[in-house]
User: Fold these one by one.
Assistant:
Number 1:
Amino acid sequence: MGANHTALDAACPDCGHTQVNRLLRSGGWIRLERELQLPIAAVPEQHRWFIAVDGYAVDAHGNEAHCYIAHHRVCSRRPHPEHMAPIFSAIWQRNRALDGLAFD
Ligand SMILES: [Zn+2]
């Protein structure tokens, strides 16, 4: 889609699903769970990601009602994020189910 140089679709090396990689102002990038926007109340503050107007992924707090989470927390091939907020378990279980993997 051309104009946006801060987003790059790329397959996750673990599960193979295409996700959106977003640049960080620090120079790296983060793979966000694709097109999944969650009510911020469901996500602990330190795990909330937002897309700035210029397309960069930022973890600063804003006034947004929804946020993104990092894909690696809920990737179907990663260990169950059982030590994290319930929303992470729920999405991990969804991803496991979508990939036909056990999630108990
Ligand atoms: Zn993955």
Number 2:
Amino acid sequence: MNETLLLTKVAQLYRELDRQISQWHTCRACGRCCDFDTFGHRLYLTPPELLYFAHHAGRPLKPMTEGICPYRVEGRCSVYPYRFVGCRIFQCNGSEAAQSDLTEAALKRLKQCCTRHHIPYRYMDLKTALNSL
Ligand code: SF4
Ligand code: SF4
């Protein structure tokens, strides 16, 4: 695995996503959906996202013991620049169809990333992912 190239590809994907999502203007970054159990929401992610996250947020990762993302601090995301694809795309008041299209396109690229860098592709819930490194 060429980690530098992998991290560059994920950063590029995030930049493009942020540019597309910035046109939606629906998320207030209130952090309520990061309390998954209360909000009734789930977050799934892939190995390239997790590697990018660990590289920037630092290891060891915080374990997830409850239904709340451990990186939500005082109600806000403490790792906002490194947050996952699902964190970027999910908009509680946005178009589900638009979010679905963007997610499918992002997952396709992340799968290609896995293939290219010989990483097994997985689609993990946040708790499994954070507890796996
Ligand atoms: S998607 Fe909704 S609940 Fe989640 S942070 Fe944005 S405004 Fe808050
Ligand atoms: S990484 Fe940030 S945006 Fe994503 S679930 Fe955790 S606190 Fe929320």
